[in-house]
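== Protein entry: sequence and backbone fold ==
=== Local backbone shapes as whole numbers ===
==== Amino acids and backbone structure tokens ====
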Amino acid sequence: MTKNILVGQSGGPTAVINASLYGVIAEGMNHLDEIDHVYGMVHGLEGFLKDDYMDLSEELTQKELELLKLTPAAYLGSCRYKLPSDLTAPTYPTVFEKLEALNIGYFFYIGGNDSMDTVSKLSRYGAQIGSSIRFVGIPKTIDNDLFLTDHTPGYGSAAKYVASTVREIALDAAAYHQPAVTVIELMGRHAGWLTAASVLARKDKGDNPLLIYLPESGFDFKSFARDLSAALQTQPNVVVCVSEGICDSSGRLICEYNDEAKLDNFGHKMLTGCGKVLENFVHNHFGIKARSVELNVCQRCSALISSAADIEEASLAGSFGVRAALSGATGKMVAFERTCDTPYTMDCSLVDVNQVCNREKPFPAQWITGHGTDVGQDFIRYALPLIQGEAAHPMKDGLPVYARRKPSGPQPYDASSSSATSVPG
């Protein structure tokens, strides 16, 4: 008997998360003898619990499906919803009743650590009750911190954006001869993979960024002042790249020096502001011009500069996950295995999702050089293949064209249909 697919997206979006969604949909529709419909959860499992879903196999045209592959952000909408740790909680019977009502045979969740936690819990509960539904995680994170995979879809495009933008900022900073420091704050809570990509901005030895600080190395203000002083002796304009999650020797986040770290729904500290802390430190300690730049969500949503290799691998992860589930896999995550560096090749495989969720893969200590201020050649060899190629994006009126889900709730505000006098005061 044919079954249906249910797919959702969770956590922070990336430039290629929809390429994985494309892979799931396209592969599912290639198996009409086994799959009737491909349903999409709107706003992940949280939305599904509210019966918010759509029939992707019916509502997407072939043109829209192809456009989806090049569209950033989460087409289905995302969420940060955490299932109860107690598998006897009433949430689980509710979820499975809804899955059975839609005749779901295959469940795919595209996301990072917390999303793999969802796959783990649902697959374990399903095993307890003897459910035939198969649960597979499709990896996604710009942080590149998932265990048991060489890298994750989304990282290559984010790394390409970081390297390109840092190179442009470095050129801008070099326009003036007065001493100045530019601090670039990049995403990375506990793992420095994304900040490390700033090293790719260098064209020649001695280029900016001259200093790179990752969360894996303790940050010390005295050492920073010494390192920066030495860097300023080599050139007047210094670019410093830092992860948002850098800490001092006591474990205190540098951003907490501004008392701006709050908690999200998962109890994670919402990191922001370490660049501003360092900007003020440089200005006060050295008495020179200093500025801080926080790239923020641009690192994950810039699709025009996405990596073609990343797009293809993200799509491959989705399609491989569908084939694996149809072959009987459940409680698994799709992983990448690098089979060769030169020329770069990789294969997809399956790993136990229980060994992936709620863990973070740190940046290798042996790749950190310069007494914690730089990144070595081993990382460059690792990262370069992941940022290769540029996709041909469809354009209209000078702007990129993206797929967009039709809103199911209140319609967007249209400023052209309102007058200034009709706006409430």
The radius of gyration is 23 Å. Residues 260-266, 418-425 have pLDDT under 50 and may be disordered. The chain is about 30% helix and 20% strand.
